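User: For a reading group we're discussing how well predicted structures match intuition. Take Immunoglobulin domain-containing protein. Before you show the prediction, I'll give you the sequence so everyone sees exactly what went in.
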Amino acid sequence: MVLKLQSMFSALNEDAITNLHGAFGVKRVSVKEGDSVTLDSGLTEMKDDDVIQWRFGNEYTLIAEINVTANRITVYDDVLDGRFRDRLKVDHQTGSLTITNTRTEHTGHYELQTNSVIKSFTLSVFVSVTEGDSVTLNSHLTEMKDDDVIQWMFKNTLIAEISKRLNKITVYDDVLDGRFRDRLKLDNQTGSLTITNTTTEHAGHYELQTNSVIKSFTLIVIVKISVKEGDSVTLNSDLTEIKEVDKILWMFKNTLIAEINKRADRITVYNGVLDGRFRDRLKLDKQTGSLTITNITTEHDGDYRLKINSMRKRFSLTVYGELNTFNYLGPSLCFFLH
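Assistant: Thanks. Here is the predicted 3D structure of Immunoglobulin domain-containing protein, as structure tokens, for the group to look at:
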């Protein structure tokens, strides 16, 4: 299939390749729940005869459109049970779509359709928590019905459930080596799940299953680390060894700074990015994928992201300077307030 696509591209002109890239290339975008996100159309301006449509989900439900000829912008607030109500904004110059106050139910596939191009986006809305804090995964149900059964799954393992008919709440403490023991609380009115005293073991994919709906959540647990300027710090992957299929990416904010491709047996450190602030300072452990930063400066203060296939980890690194102390050996001066 790859060979066929390569030969097809070689026979097309540059404009055709651009259009095909727009049709088949999927841009991945992530946003923290509650924040806003913009899906960029890539257009600088719209033509007089343009009709732009934004669609969502596997059914390609129309959620917004611009008709330039009619000078009309339409947002379809009531579709999909109103999940986008009062949340969509369309830029009348470029057609870009902004979603405000995002919720996990906005996760999914978006498609921009114009007269000349199709662009695809995959949006992931994640929930984040600082390690050690509590976090609630909201069902967004106002109340449960009498026949409701709610189940919470973590990576395909059942960890908690409510049977309204039996008036019973069950938490499965012993699964997954007991990582959730004494940490799970279920709201018996809404079915929302609270995880207390979070650790990085709790990061990952959660699924809420009810009689009528399935909702997915991605939880990111942020590890806070403080280090003194000039020292070294290691951001741990928590892996004992890297598997053959693993690809490990380390990002500083949104910039790739290092990666390991196990299959290709290749370690790459990007020394030149960000004005070279990481030059000769990064070391990757080829066994575990952990990242060490040496000779830290305040330029290295910020958010780091680790991607291992579908797994995500985040670190918030704070770099502090050494307080200067001065010894003054002159006479003492005292002030007294009367």
